[in-house]
Amino acid sequence: MTTSDEDRKKAATEAARWLVSLEEDPDDASLRARFDAWLATSPVNAVAWRHTAEIYDLMEKVPPAHAEHWRRRAGARDRIASLQGRDMPALRQARPAGPPRRRRLIVAAVMAMAACLAVVLLPSVLLWLEADHVTSTAEQRSLALQDGSTIRLAPDSAVAIDYTADRRLVRLIRGEAFFDVAAMPSRPFRVVARNLTVTVLGTHFDVRLGEDEAVVAVRQGRVNVGPASTPARRAATERLDAGNWMRIDRSGAVRRGTVPPNEVGAWLDGQIVARDRRLSDVVDDLRRYYAGMIVLADRQFGEQAVSGVYNVADPVAAMRAVVGAHGGVVHQVSPWIIVVSGS
């Protein structure tokens, strides 16, 4: 019998729900009986539970920050027999009574399982409807526009293009793109990325959308940057020259800085160059090159500032380098799931 992505997605979501239910009430015999029945229903359920239990078991091995505040229930850990004839890691009957660090790890595991392979590998239907061009994991694409401009689209990115007789507009919907704009004074070129607008006549620049921010950096020439909500005639509020960058978060807060111009768009050469960036932002960049899921289990750990140059050709090695340098741990639970945690 062929197993579809939808079947795997459903089983993984159900497994995550069972994990939470059993962790919350491990002594409920009726709940355990219903779980056993679900587990025996299909080999797909067994596989989904094995992956879920493996992640939970791994989380339990991460030393808690305040071990003295944790209490464990008595009794040995349960073991659940695999339908394929071998033992599966099972749920530890352990519940935190104090700070929620362990709980955050559990939630991270549940989120990973709920997403499942279908969510990781299949593009969003809404994104496909909204965008004109989309790239997948580790894929770069060069787009030649009708005016002679080009867009280099980074992995896991999407743009929508709107050209008319008097305007050139590109909307970055997801990810990152590098723009080489042909000069046309009568038709300014604009890029809208969430809450900022970049207006240029002819130049080379990069725009990146992070989880909480939009960033523009200039390699050559100059650009004008303003808020996306501002009318076009008043949108140019600040000028950036070669080597300048500007970052605007969702609240509208602005940060500025400079880098060597040749570092702008370093991803075109297979590198991530980080200068005093949040670790979580570098993790977001590496996600675009990893054909699976990267779970950052500790949000506070992700707030650390990192600097370095990382090779995206081996995203797992790059992840270990950036995380290990700050005392973190990278657990590759399976070929398609990585869990990052603090020390």
CATH architecture descriptor of the largest domain: Sandwich
The average pLDDT value, as a whole number, equals 78
Q: Outline, from the CA principal axes?
A: elongated
Distance between the termini: 43 Å
The portion of residues forming beta strands comes to 25-35%
Radius of gyration: 23 Å
Low-confidence stretches: 59-101, 116-123, 231-236
How many DSSP E strands? Answer: 23
Number of individual domains? 3
Q: What is the fold-level CATH name, i.e. the topology of the largest domain?
A: Jelly Rolls
How many distinct helices? 8
Tell me about this structure:
Helix 1 runs antiparallel to helix 4 and helix 6 packs antiparallel against helix 8. With 343 residues, the chain is an alpha+beta fold. The chain is elongated and about 75 Å long. Strands 5-8-9-11-12-15-16 form a seven-stranded mixed beta sheet. Strands 6-7-10-13-14-17-18 form a seven-stranded antiparallel beta sheet, with no helix packed on it. It has three domains: 116 residues, no CATH class; 145 residues, Jelly Rolls, CATH 2.60.120; 71 residues, 3-Layer(bab) Sandwich (Phage tail protein beta-alpha-beta fold), CATH 3.55.50.30.
